[in-house]
């Protein structure tokens, strides 16, 4: 594989564009989900199709490139990460169905605060003033965002916080148990883990599928344009800009998702939601850059 020089301006510009495209594509999830739900799908059915299609496409690509999956020693931990991501997806998609998409997005992106708090309490990481300030900012942002919505949206808030904790747990587990390797093979196994998780959920409680051509087209778009494409562009772009800048650029995702919810889905953006969301995004940027700087040092 040809090495990438992140200090080259042309390579950095290419990576910058690829990571931005990845974040934008991930931010399209609420739009595809909105049309799928409108056609009769529920979160289990939608996510089962999403993960299954994405895993299938990824495996076909790996086979065409003659890339092997991880060894058996790493296969199990990677599948467990997939289960964690599946739980996060279930929480996020359930929240966006039972409460506003904007609120679900903001609460989901409080996960860096959970990761940092756990790392400080149980993994002996240093509790710097910057980290404490970031976690306080995220906490105040979440409180401000939910303050106007608590009466009618407790279920949705619970699902969104479950998503944030599950996503954070998957990140912590993956960092501790799975060494760096080919990111595309890891992504394939994680997608397989998600597909297996929702297959079990379907067998246990059933699922509802899209009932219209628009619904199935949206589900296919979710798998292709909001799963496979952003994975590929992020994996290609992040080495060109570095982990810290890639993490910062990825915060475009909640901005895109909230913008879609307001402009295309017709949700109302209240001042408290806007202010709280801005605090959560700023906290996420501070925490992600802080963690990356510590890792590099």
Give a verbal description of the structure.
The structure is a single chain. With 297 residues, this protein is mainly α. It has one domain (9-296). The protein has 13 helices and no strands. The protein has helices spanning 9-26, 29-38, 43-64, 72-98, 101-108, 111-122, 129-146, 154-177, 183-205, 213-241, 243-249, 252-263, 271-296. Helix 3 (43-64) packs antiparallel against helix 9. It is globular. The model is unreliable at 292-297 (pLDDT under 50).
Secondary structure category? mainly alpha
Most strands sheet: none
N-to-C span = 26 Å
Number of domains: 1
β-strand number: 0
Mean pLDDT score: 84
Point out poorly predicted stretches: 292-297
- Spatial shape: globular
Number of helices: 13
Topology:
Blueprint: H1 9-26, H2 29-38, H3 43-64, H4 72-98, H5 101-108, H6 111-122, H7 129-146, H8 154-177, H9 183-205, H10 213-241, H11 243-249, H12 252-263, H13 271-296
Helix pairs in contact: 1-10, 1-12, 2-10, 3-9, 3-10, 4-5, 4-8, 4-9, 5-8, 5-12, 5-13, 6-7, 6-8, 6-13, 7-13, 10-11, 11-13
Summarize the structure.
This protein has helices spanning 9-26, 29-38, 43-64, 72-98, 101-108, 111-122, 129-146, 154-177, 183-205, 213-241, 243-249, 252-263, 271-296. By secondary structure, the chain is mostly helical. It has one domain.
Which features does this protein show?
297 residues; mainly alpha; 0% strand; globular; disordered C terminus
